[in-house]
What we know:
Domain PAS: 157-228
CATH superfamily of the largest domain: EAL domain
Domain EAL: 473-727
Oligomer: single chain
Protein name: EAL domain-containing protein
Number of helices: 26
CATH class of the largest domain: Alpha Beta
Amino acid sequence: MNEYRASGEAALPTLHGESVNLPRLLLVDDEPRLLASLYELLRDRGFDLTTASSGSEAIAHLSRSRFDLVLLDLRLPDIGGHEIMDFMNERAVDADVIVMSGEVGIDAAIGALKRGAYDYLRKPYSREELMKTVGNALEQRRLASANTRIAQQLENSEKMYRYLVDSSPDIIYTLNHEGRFTFVNDRAYQLLGFSRDELIGKHYSILVHDEDLERARYVFNERRVDERASRNVELRLKCRGARSNSGDRTFNNTLMTISLNSIGMHVPDSEVQKLEFFGTYGVARDITDRKRAEEVISYQAYHDILTDLPNRILFKDRLGLAVIQAKRKLTELAVMFIDLDRFKLVNDTLGHVKGDELLQQVAVRLKDCLRKGDTLARQGGDEFTIVLPELRDRDDARIIADKFLESLHRPFDLDGHEVHISASIGIAIYPGDGESIDELLRHADIAMYQVKALGKNGHSFYHDSMLDVSHQKIALEQALRRALEHNELEMYYQPQIDSTSGRIVGAEALMRWNHPTRGLLSAGEFLPFAEENGLMLPISDWMIGALCRDMLQWNLASGQAVRLSLNLSPQYLDRGDFFEKMRGALVRYGISPAQIEVEITENICIRNPQYAIEQLNKLCQLGVSVAIDDFGTGYSSLSYLHRFPIHTMKIDQSFVKEIHDAEGHYPVILAIISIARGLNLHLVAEGVETETQANYLRSNGCETMQGYLFHRPISLSNFIGVLRLQGPIAGHTAVFPPPRALSA
């Protein structure tokens, strides 16, 4: 800014220590001596000076340049000073004028002032008078410019404030001391459907739900300020229809939940020297979506997402309430435990997606059989539990169990696949079969297993003799432990064939139990029990050693290093010393890690994916490869390709069984083959049973297969015999692509 001393001496303007534009002055006088004297007087005073000796010259300067101040003589030979001022006014020239004239008449001065002259100096004038007048004129000009700038800033600030308020995602409002709206932004119309004109002057209660009026009274009449003011009070507001400028927000009901903050507004009272309350300022935020999300989260915490039934947490809560009521009313209640028969077969053949659809349809049928007040819950997997309160007698539970079995007897339609299942139902009655929640559930579970043992597809009430079933489980566990000690377990091998050459290029290891009384048992008959009872770790330890011993025999006997695929339990992979045990066995028996392939399923990903990735990467660094078993049947199969170090992909037998025509089109098979080819993965088809299936797979790029068409699982001695018959290929060593080790 330009500053001038009180004496009228002009200071050189500066800004942060640097020179800025000097005030520009135009000096107009037709007398050369006076013009020169004026110029000398103002020179070196911090001004940028320009002179004109005639009116036309002055107009020319004013037309092409900007000036802050014009020192103008009225008497000019060509154009008078008044005409020059008229020119400036017509052209809106932004410059102040100080008239300097020798005329003594009042008319000249009045004419100049009427045309907007800042001041009128009569010649001769003193040096001090001139400098003071020039300084004052420039100072007034500076102040006027500053005021204009501040006014513009205030106007812009007000526009910005109004824009921010009206653009706020929240409802912003003010109320007077009576609780009537004095201001509300546009958001109220967008969310509630009430225009500003409809609300101004109206009491806030027209918007508040009747049940929330008492709570609303505290926030809408808030008088406190600072930290004591209301914060985040939730209210429901009435809506008029569904209004939203964005077009993507609707209100399905007539209420909206808000989180409301408010603060009192006060003005000083000069007479009583205290703050006078005159209204409330508030911000109301729409939290309808958040409240709905919280309701969804709360609902999902107590319900099974797949079937929308109560989960085990909610079931135990309701069972607990039912027990309390039964105890108070001296009545009986029933707890049922339902396990679906043959569900695993459906899951294995049609895949998990169809299995989920089946569970959803089962849930609907079971619910249709219940009375009002009964609770059906999903425990997990294919297990359901039911509580039947206020039984008249045990026949009530029997009738409902029969309804369950009858409803499940009807076939299920899974996208054209007709599926038949049944159920095993165990029933425990309070208080005779137990008085606690856990006791009732455990006894119903025991009764259910009794039905399973007797052939499934039925129901049974619990009685004490069924405890023998639990004893049988203990006996089975002891028998499995003895099987490890007495070498009753044995590894069988299903060859994997190169369908072009017919040669065995690999084998999948499958466990068998030579039970002393029941004969040869497949893995599915005892390994699930081993998983449940913590026996997979010692069994897997035995398996690693047995496989290495068998491989050493067939390598020596046949002269062929055929690749071996083995399935690892997720429990075993989670074990900390798994990698060291595998490496130790390979070193001890002299088996090349490249000859080993570990098969993983989605269970490994679900249990502890990060740790599984680390373990599998260590195997890959050792030289062991990794295969996806049953690819395409799980929820997360595709994610394996990115997260896990995969070497081989196995096409599940459920897809292979769909092949009935060698010239047909089976898009899932083609997609899996395409994925494997694109990622340079080895590909194996499981469950190949017909030439049609083999021809279709071969013609589309899958040459390695296993299944009953080629070989059933066979013992070690028979496997060695088959290898000897085919004989080694002279000078040929099997080479497999190295596994891709991924970062964890």
